[in-house]
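[job 0412] stage=complex_fold ligand=magnesium ion status=START
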Amino acid sequence: MMKISDYFGENVFSKAVMRERLPLEVFDEVCSVEQNGGQISMAAADVVAKAMMEWAIERGATHYTHWFLPLTGVTAEKHDSFLSAPDADGNVIMKLTGKQLIMGEPDASSFPTGGLRATHYARGYTAWDITSPAFVKEMSCGTILCIPTVFLSYTGEALDNKTPLLRSMEALSQQALRVVRLFGDNAAKKVIPSVGAEQEYFIVDREKYLKRRDLIYTGRTLFGAPAPKGQELEDQYFGVIRERVGAFMADLNVELWKMGITATTQHNEVAPAQHECAPIYTSCNVAVDHNQLTMETMKRVAGRHDLVCLLHEKPFARVNGSGKHNNWSIATDTGENLLEPGTTPNDNLQFLLILSCIIKAVDRHADLLRMSTACVGNDLRLGADEAPPAIISIFLGSQLEDVVEQIVKNGTAAECIAGAQLDAGISTLPRIQRDAADRNRTSPFAFTGNKFEFRMVGSSDCIANSNTVLNAIVAEALCEAADVLETSADFAAEACRVIAENLREHSRVIFNGNGYSGEWVEEAARRGLPNLPSMVSSVPSLTTKKSINLFEKFGVFTRAELESRSEIMYETYAKTTSIEARTMAHMAAKHYTPAIVRYMARLGDSICKVRNACPQASTQVQEKLLSKTGRLLTQADEALEHLRQCIDQSTRLECMRDVANYCHDSLVPAMQALRAPIDELELIVDKDLWPVPTYGDLMFEV
Ligand code: ADP
Ligand code: MG
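[job 0412] stage=complex_fold status=DONE, emitting structure tokens
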């Protein structure tokens, strides 16, 4: 039996590996650049590259790749072998140089750039991100050394999700350091955002999956009547994990652990066939890389079990969708979590100042935070018919809400509610110390003890975007506080004033009630909180004056980068919905209509045969079914015709923004109009004629 400790992190070129394999001065240089920034010398890079290659080859690697996060939302890799030209005797030479380690030059022309550069200027650069460790990935095509990198255009603009994230982390660190200095912390050199991303996903049988073009092309079901059983019994949540899914999870854990990913929590989620996997939190940058790797590994490992992992936000209508709870906190490099309230938060001035800055940031930039979670799939999970509203609000819990109320009213908080002991009335039970505040499962941005849990993020999305926005908006609020406080004569009094001011101006964003209720939508509107129900409606927040000022001031995005990203969002929306629409048209024409026609013929045959055989027998049921089926098929056919016209119309528009809006306003409703009669027919037509596996087959037969 192997113990976890025998193989945990064995595929990571970790600090420990470097300490063992690098000369001390080179190791120190790498650590110093990682900690304090600066350039690694080419001489050191050569040494690191050689050690990294030798280590990777020992682990079976044949190739290396600069691994990066382009704006497709998934990762990119191009494998190059370590081979270089054989010597005169024909002996093969393996090589990875410092230059190859620190930069690469992939052809950038086929990655989304949002108009940042013309296609014929194809140059792009990848540059080594020393803050995220290199690792090897074991795949069917071989074992590959992956070097995390950023991806930049020829003119230095970010073409990836990593560059702005790293910039935002530096901005946050600088501003938060100013604040902790004011409170007398002279030891911290850095403030680091930490993230733990809980990943939700669905697992379905691969054979059934392959029978559905919608799952194959779009990752979700575009048709499907609800199964007789959904999630209403709440028996799936935390239920016993099915054997086949359990075997997948066990295998997944091993793969993740080998890559140093601390997968720790696993359980069944609310919807049938839905599950969750969560790691232990780590620095924001590494957490982003780990989450990308987790998603990729889930898909790969599922395949080995003849299963498919669906990461789409809403693979099935009418049951819960999947998200990614992004747990976020900030801590000094000396280990102090700045979101730790202590037992008496009312007199923890530093905590209150930082909390008030976060509240200010979230209220002021609610639109940006919302935008950062926008992806096509999340439109079905946020703000849609069966989904919670896409309104940003903060849940603080009773203890902190009470403190905030006191400060708003009196300028300071004299007292705070303490946690109590729970008494279950059973003498043998351990005494449970109850937390000072309860939890709230409906809040998009909830304080959970010593961190915020941002729950709007979509399950398939790259978490870099949300964390970039979060880091940047908080950096801005901390900067404003530091600007005032650094020059104040009476620091404590001034800090109290800033806290009260932040809370008075921004406490409208605090909401402790049921965020899923209709009343909240009205209440939020009264409070003036933005409600951006769709991806297309959220894109304009990227390029408002407020947004450009924020991101340019802290060097996170240039205006051109923001404009390119909004272009890419429109483009992604338009392309994805068009693929969905074409898939629906294909399925309706090639799968559903022929099956329904066959069913009608079967009914017709039956009517004729029964009449022939026994004229006095009733054929009423067959006739009723036949006429109902005929009516629904006509309705479906008309809807199909209309959908085709909409698809055609969408290709005639020039500007991406117009295409995206057209898809949202016309194409999506046309898709719904086609789905409705087909879903109704699914409940009528013989099971043996129905051309695809149903919701029941997919969610309950794994
Ligand atoms: P849940 O919210 O589902 O009850 P947990 O409280 O266990 O789950 O935490 C969920 C995630 O939050 C885990 O990935 C965990 O590592 C992460 N987490 C815990 N503490 C912090 C923190 N201080 N900063 C960021 N993430 C954290
Ligand atoms: Mg959670």
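The first strand starts at residue 61 and ends at 67.
[job 0412] exit 0
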